Amino acid sequence: MSDFKSLIEGTPLLPILQPQSVEQAVNIAGAVHASGLRSIEVVRRTPVAAAAVTAIREAFPELLVGMGTVLNQEHVQEAVDAGSQFIITPTISEKLLSALSDITIPYLPGTASPSDILLAVEAGLSEVKFFPASLSGGAAMLKNFSAIFPEVSLCPTGGISNSNLHEYSSLPNVFAVGGSWMIPKSCVASGDWQGVTAACALAQQQFTK
Ligand code: 3PG
């Protein structure tokens, strides 16, 4: 049984980082940490992702660092070997769930539909990611899920920003929200780490239950 929700309790915002270099990843993680946020997801879409996870853990031991965009057994192993404290997947399959069930760190499988959620529930899970949230029905879809799956808590990601964060965070069945908007591309391009801290801080103000 995954216990992702308790892992991130008290810090329900997950900034999503796609690192271009290890040094950049550490700088961004430092900026996120300075905002008071306690978790960060590093997506394995660049060759430096695993090294970035390891370096962030070393630099900021009090920050929870996980790997995202995990799709198969090999990726799961890569995440664990890098020192990930949690794993997030964009989608779900029986094979992927089987690979995840072998690990001891919390994980959050991605779902985009009621049938995906049922697959997670059948595997004994009650916490899932909802991705891509805005393209999969948004907050209105999540409201429907609460009637069908009252026991399931979701973490929407994809297409969320400060302008629509409240629509999601205010829902009773949403326990966390993730996204790249907390690490603005413009700040990353210019090395404006204080700008990243400010964006994360603003998101915390906008996250309301
Ligand atoms: C992702 O996996 O890329 C995330 O869900 C981020 O989506 P966003 O860039 O729209 O926040």
UniProtKB/TrEMBL annotation:
Record SUPFAM superfamilies: Aldolase
EC number: 4.1.2.14, 4.1.3.16
Recorded superkingdom: Bacteria
Residue ranges of the TM segments: none
Pathway(s) this gene product operates in, as recorded in its UniProt entry: Carbohydrate acid metabolism
GO molecular function ontology, one term from the record: 2-dehydro-3-deoxy-phosphogluconate aldolase activity
Alphabetical keyword list: Carbohydrate metabolism, Lyase
UniProt-listed InterPro entries: Aldlse_KDPG_KHG, Aldolase_TIM, KDPG/KHG_AS_2
NCBIfam families the UniProt entry points to: eda (TIGR01182)
Family classification: Belongs to the KHG/KDPG aldolase family.
Subunit structure: Homotrimer.
Protein name: Bifunctional 4-hydroxy-2-oxoglutarate aldolase/2-dehydro-3-deoxy-phosphogluconate aldolase
